[in-house]
Design brief:
Length: about 230
């Protein structure tokens, strides 16, 4: 019973920041354990040791909590991906695609959040929360764009925007497919005709992103060649 009363005594800005951090950490742990869709605001409040009504002083909805965690995930993934790209001694589309696939596949909860963000996390929050989230993703994308264009210089800024959008959309969807409920997973394993429903996120994502990058690079190269010769690109 100490936790709720202690929570009520948090009055200073620093104490409130600590409480917010505790709520976010509880939501993160529950999301990893159960999956985002199965965590309620009441669950998060209980994990922190407070009443739901008290939690609402810090976050208006569960969606706001998980949208904040999605933004944090973007920045963490951006740092990891950028570091991996710059550490590569084999530049080119295939290496870039592998780096995207590896860093996304290693972040299961982030992939789960990526799937839920456009479906519901952005739909039950304030406009200010949506704005903050979109600005956070934009900031996280900037170093990725710089690192990708160091590896594949022919790509335009818009090419990289399209690449990142494709990567995160596919990672979110593929993670959901690769992590069905226990009963559905058992069904897939029991029926050989359903073998195609069992996927591994990283290799499939790497293959699709390699093809995407090769296509973007070829298109960009053709456009540059056309502008150099004065001929219109296809």
């Amino acid at each position: 019973m100490d936790a709720p009363s202690e929570f009520q005594r948090a009055r200073s800005p620093e104490a409130k920041r600590r409480r917010e951090a505790s709520i976010l950490e509880a939501a993160r742990a529950l999301g990893r354990e159960r999956g985002i869709r199965d965590v309620s605001l009441t669950d998060i409040a209980a994990a922190v040791g407070m009443h739901k009504s008290a939690l609402l002083r810090y976050f208006e909805t569960r969606e706001e909590i998980y949208l904040r965690l999605t933004a944090e995930g973007w920045h963490e993934w951006s740092d990891a991906l950028t570091a991996q790209l710059r550490a590569s001694d084999d530049p080119g589309p295939a290496a870039v695609a592998r780096a995207f696939a590896a860093t996304l596949a290693a972040r299961g909860m982030f992939c789960d959040l990526l799937a839920h963000a456009p479906l519901n996390l952005e739909r039950n929050v304030s406009l200010d929360a949506v704005r903050d989230f979109k600005l956070a993703t934009r900031a996280a994308r900037e170093p990725i764009a710089e690192a990708v264009r160091e590896q594949v210089p022919v790509l335009s800024e818009q090419d990289v925007v399209d690449l990142v959008a494709t990567a995160v959309a596919l990672a979110g969807a593929m993670w959901q497919i690769a992590n069905p409920g226990a009963e559905v997973a058992a069904l897939y394993r029991s029926d050989p005709r359903l073998a195609h429903a069992v996927i591994e996120v990283e290799p499939r994502l790497a293959r699709i992103l390699t093809a995407t990058l090769l296509g973007l690079a070829a298109q960009a190269g053709a456009a540059q060649a056309g502008s150099t010769t004065g001929e219109p690109s296809a």
